[in-house]
């Protein structure tokens, strides 16, 4: 496994996303309280205890998934690949497949093809998107976007990457440097 040559800081999610996630994470706790109340008044305590155990496991998994979604955000460039970690998702793209000439830095949502139209598999909150999305231009893309300026990276024969590092130009320059070093070999 390649060690990261460079790690790029990712813009933090919006306050709205953090508040919505906190409220959403409270839903499993509420479900557990309801299940506990039903258990206390159940005529069949064994079945109620089993239902409570299932609710407890589902609630803990759901809350863990939600917390992981916002906390795990990273962009790493290794000698052979770009690694984007977004919540429970990780996308590894060989650096040779990234079309740096077609890459574009722009304010998030400025261009119609950078708008996510439909979440295929991931997390979507106002000010935070992570996972697989269908874009308005009809193409699939892997997003890890929060706020700020986005870097859209076309990938040869694969869905694009759209990320929001704190310094998108630095990531693009590093990718261009890797590409030019590879071309000079």
Summing up helix and strand content along with how strands pair, one would put the structural category as alpha+beta
Strand runs, count: 10
Shape: elongated
Mean pLDDT: 82
Q: Please, how many helices?
A: 3
Can you list the strand order of the major beta sheet? 5-9-10-8-7-6
Helix content: 25-40%
In whole angstroms, the N-to-C terminal distance is: 22 Å
Rg is: 20 Å
Q: What characterizes the major β-sheet?
A: 6 strands, mixed
Assess the beta-strand content as a share of residues. Answer: 25-35%
Low-confidence stretches: none
* Helix and strand run: EHHEEEEEEEEEH
Brief characterization of the structure:
The protein has about 180 residues and is an alpha+beta fold. It is about 35% helix and about 35% strand.
Question: Can you characterise this structure?
Answer:
- The protein has 185 residues and is α+β, with helices and mostly antiparallel strands.
- It is 37% helix and 33% strand.
- The chain contains three helices and ten strands.
- The chain has helices at 15-40, 45-71, 168-183; strands spanning 6-8, 73-77, 81-86, 89-94, 104-107, 116-125, 128-135, 140-145, 149-155, 158-163.
- The strands form two sheets. Strands 5-9-10-8-7-6 form a six-stranded mixed beta sheet. A four-stranded antiparallel beta sheet has the order 1-2-3-4.
- α1 (15-40) packs antiparallel against α2 (45-71).
- It is elongated and about 70 Å long.
């Amino acid at each position: 496994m390649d060690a990261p040559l460079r790690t790029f800081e990712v813009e933090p999610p919006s306050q709205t996303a953090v508040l919505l996630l906190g409220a959403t994470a409270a839903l499993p706790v509420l479900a557990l309280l309801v299940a506990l109340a039903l258990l206390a008044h159940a005529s069949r305590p064994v079945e109620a205890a089993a239902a409570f155990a299932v609710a407890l496991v589902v609630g803990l998994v759901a809350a863990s998934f939600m917390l992981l979604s916002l906390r795990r955000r990273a962009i790493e460039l290794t000698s052979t690949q770009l690694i984007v970690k977004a919540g429970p998702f990780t996308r590894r793209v060989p650096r040779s497949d990234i079309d740096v000439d077609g890459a574009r830095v722009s304010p998030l949502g400025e261009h119609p093809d950078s708008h996510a139209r439909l979440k295929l598999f991931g997390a979507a909150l106002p000010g935070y998107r992570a996972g697989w999305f269908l874009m308005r231009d009809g193409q699939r893309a892997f997003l890890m976007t929060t706020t700020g300026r986005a870097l859209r990276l076309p990938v040869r024969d694969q869905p694009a990457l759209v990320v929001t590092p704190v310094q998108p130009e630095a990531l693009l320059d590093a990718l261009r440097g890797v590409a030019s070093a590879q071309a000079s070999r």
